[in-house]
Design brief:
By secondary structure, this protein is an alpha+beta fold. The chain folds into two domains: 69 residues, Arc Repressor Mutant, subunit A (Orthogonal Bundle), CATH 1.10.10; 131 residues, Umud Fragment, subunit A. It has four helices and eleven strands; from the N terminus they run H-H-H-E-E-H-E-E-E-E-E-E-E-E-E. The strands form two sheets. A nine-stranded mixed β-sheet has the order 4-3-5-6-11-7-8-9-10, covered by helices on one side. A two-stranded antiparallel sheet has the order 1-2. Helix 1 crosses helix 3. The chain is globular, with a radius of gyration of 18 Å. The model has no long low-confidence stretch (mean pLDDT 83).
Length: 219
């Protein structure tokens, strides 16, 4: 069965549903979805409706937990598969692709904490952390992080104001966030300082490990 392509956000919702149901044995409520993924219950309903329309899930009744992942969806995806959902900058922030590029089959123990999706690295700003251009990094979905963790974040492009993706080491002091590179060239890869009271900023998840493509670059 050929399923319709999912957007980035729809892929994250589906991955969350799959992992939640595997762990809990039941679907989440819309409130639980919103808390986990950082959006409102009305937005959760819209994403569920889109997944149902594309044939990935079915709403069995009108209750909050009345949904199931269709067997055709499960059969279409390899076991332990993770979606690759575009690029993440390890350098100057870049716009994120919105559609799934492919699904890769990986061992669940490869990433800690468990990853829900992969992003393709672009650039060398995290070189000293052994994260290279073209690596696939596993991202564990969360909107919280501790100081010194490596995070995937959305920040505004300084030129256009559009939200862009980047991978950096996270530090926070009150209202201010500083995103640090792991590269000796601190002039080229300077820290990014954000006033969260005045600038849109969102943590997409924690870096959980990587897959290095065969024949990938070396430092």
């Amino acid at each position: 069965m050929q399923l319709a392509a999912l957007t980035e956000k729809q892929t994250k919702v589906l991955a969350f549903l799959q992992h939640y149901m595997q762990q809990k044995g039941r679907p989440p409520t819309q409130a639980e979805m919103g808390d986990a993924l950082g959006f409102t219950r009305s937005m959760a309903r819209l994403h569920l409706a889109a997944l149902a329309e594309k044939g990935y899930i079915s709403a069995e009744d009108s209750t909050a937990r009345g949904l199931r992942i269709l067997q055709s969806t499960i059969a279409a995806l390899p076991p332990n598969s993770l979606p690759v959902i575009g690029r993440i900058a390890a350098g100057t922030p870049v716009m994120s692709d919105e559609n799934v590029e492919e699904y890769l089959t990986v061992e669940p123990t490869l990433f800690r904490p468990r990853a829900q999706f992969l992003r393709r690295v672009e650039g060398w700003s995290m070189r000293n952390a052994n994260i290279f251009d073209r690596d696939l990094v596993g991202i564990h979905q969360t909107h919280e992080a501790s100081n010194r963790q490596i995070v995937a974040v959305r920040i505004p492009d300084p030129q256009t104001g559009d939200m862009t993706m980047t991978l950096k080491r996270y530090t926070r002091d009150g209202r201010y966030v500083v995103l640090l590179s792991e590269n000796d060239d601190q002039e080229r890869y300077a820290p990014i300082r954000i006033d969260t009271h005045n600038t849109e900023f969102a943590i997409e998840g924690l870096y959980a490990g990587l897959i290095r493509p065969a024949g990938g670059p070396t430092p």
